[in-house]
């Protein structure tokens, strides 16, 4: 075979190969098979992720950003570390389990158009990446939508942006659906901590009691580890006090958290809440940072229910388990707190007296699991 015939044969073989590949791709596309870009939900280098934006059709949206190695929420809040760890694990391992049958695609797409969470993942990538050689860095964006759980609750419907073929995604090794990991609500991500201060960092605490000013006091750091307790109304220092109770009080600021955000209030409801102020605690650390917690009674929802009139517990005006609070005077964000967590913090000055009869609610760590008694 001469050279010309051999070249022609090679061209024919190449042409047939191209046509065959094209035919297979067309048939695959018609049969509903996802191509690589439509099923590649995972990001295999989560350390390169810089931002994650989550939003739904209910106007909830949250931006998670990595700055200086730390994640923050909407540019201002600390994050719940376990939650971001779970999300990054999901982003790394998420896989396609199946594609939705043609007969169901229209229905699933309609559902997702009104009931899904948009996920935008921004991460650093390189135009050229050969081993350790990485050139031309740029920010890549992957966008997809996480929809409702499947009937067996073992996966979620999902679709890549730009695709028309929905599929079912899941997290290998996880028995359940993954949509809660993509929660677009800010409150699901922001840390609930108010104060995190070691005792050695506390400089002064000022407690103002608005219902009985005689119970107001402030605590100041003296020399070494000594603290002074001063009654505000008389400006007199307690000559003696219960040292253990003071240490318990101060240790409660090591990890003080609120329970949840309280939202959906009208301005009238807010005004009503703010009229029930009963205490304010102001904490200053040795670096000069100040945190204030202003507390408001929470009305008992059963206080006006006639059917509970036989039970004195339900006739109390205010809730005995929870109260509202604002942090650092921010009236735009009202939080709900538990008295169980704040029990020592809301006590009057009498709590520190050596002969005080006030018995605080014991903390979980004070319970002795061996004999169910208090340490």
Features:
375 residues, alpha+beta, Immunoglobulin-like, 2 domains, nine-stranded antiparallel sheet, 21% helix
Annotate the secondary structure layout.
Elements: H1 3-30, H2 36-39, E1 49-56, E2 61-67, E3 70-73, E4 77-78, H3 81-93, E5 95-99, H4 102-115, E6 117-130, E7 133-149, E8 156-160, E9 167-170, E10 193-195, E11 202-209, E12 217-221, E13 227-231, E14 236-237, H5 243-251, E15 256-257, E16 260-262, H6 267-274, E17 277-285, E18 290-299, E19 318-327, E20 334-338, H7 339-342, E21 367-368, E22 373-374
Low-confidence stretches: 27-31, 303-315, 364-375
- Strand-and-helix sequence, N→C? HHEEEEHEHEEEEEEEEEHEEHEEEEHEE
**Numbering strands along the chain, what is their spatial order in the largest sheet?**
4-3-2-1-6-7-8-9-5
What proportion of the residues is helical, as a percent range? 10-25%
Number of strands: 22
Total of DSSP H or I helical runs spanning 4+ residues: 7
Count of separate structural domains: 2
| Distance, first to last CA | 98 Å
**Strand fraction:** 35-45%
Oligomer: single chain
Q: What spatial form do the alpha-carbon principal axes imply? A: elongated
Using only C-alpha atoms, the radius of gyration works out to 30 Å
Largest sheet: 9 strands, antiparallel
Question: What is the structural class?
Answer: alpha+beta
Mean pLDDT: 86
């Amino acid at each position: 075979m001469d050279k010309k015939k051999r070249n022609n044969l090679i061209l024919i073989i190449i042409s047939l190969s191209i046509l065959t590949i094209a035919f297979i791709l067309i048939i695959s596309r018609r049969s509903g098979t996802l191509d690589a870009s439509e099923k590649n939900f995972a990001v295999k280098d989560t350390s390169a992720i810089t931002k994650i934006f989550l939003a739904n059709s209910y106007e909830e949206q949250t931006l998670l950003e990595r700055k200086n190695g730390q994640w923050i929420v909407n540019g201002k809040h600390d994050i719940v570390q376990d939650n971001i760890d779970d999300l990054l694990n999901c982003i790394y391992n998420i896989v396609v389990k199946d594609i939705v049958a043609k007969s169901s695609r229209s229905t699933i797409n309609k559902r997702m158009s009104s009931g899904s969470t948009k996920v935008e993942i921004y991460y650093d990538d390189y135009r050229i990446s050969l081993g350790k050689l990485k050139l031309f860095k740029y920010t890549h964006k992957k966008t997809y939508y996480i929809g409702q759980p499947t009937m067996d609750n073992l996966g979620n419907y999902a679709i890549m942006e730009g695709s028309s073929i929905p599929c079912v995604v899941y997290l290998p090794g996880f028995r359940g659906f993954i949509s809660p990991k993509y929660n677009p609500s800010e409150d699901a991500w922001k840390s609930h901590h108010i104060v995190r201060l070691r005792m050695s960092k506390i400089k002064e605490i000022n407690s103002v009691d608005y219902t009985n000013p005689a119970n107001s006091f402030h605590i100041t750091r003296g020399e070494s580890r000594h603290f002074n307790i001063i009654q505000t109304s008389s400006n007199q220092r307690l000559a003696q006090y219960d040292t253990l109770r003071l240490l318990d009080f101060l240790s409660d600021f090591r990890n003080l958290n609120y329970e949840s955000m309280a939202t959906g209030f009208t301005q009238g409801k807010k005004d009503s809440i703010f009229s029930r102020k009963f205490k304010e605690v102001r904490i200053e650390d040795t670096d000069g940072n100040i945190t204030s917690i202003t507390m408001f009674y929470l009305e008992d929802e059963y206080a006006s229910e006639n059917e509970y009139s036989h039970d004195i517990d339900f006739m109390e005006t205010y809730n005995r388990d929870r109260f509202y609070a604002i942090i650092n005077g921010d009236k735009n964000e009202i939080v709900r707190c538990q008295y169980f967590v704040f029990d020592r913090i809301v006590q009057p000055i009498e709590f520190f007296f050596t002969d005080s009869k006030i018995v605080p609610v014991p903390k979980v760590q004070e319970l002795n699991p061996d004999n169910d008694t208090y340490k």
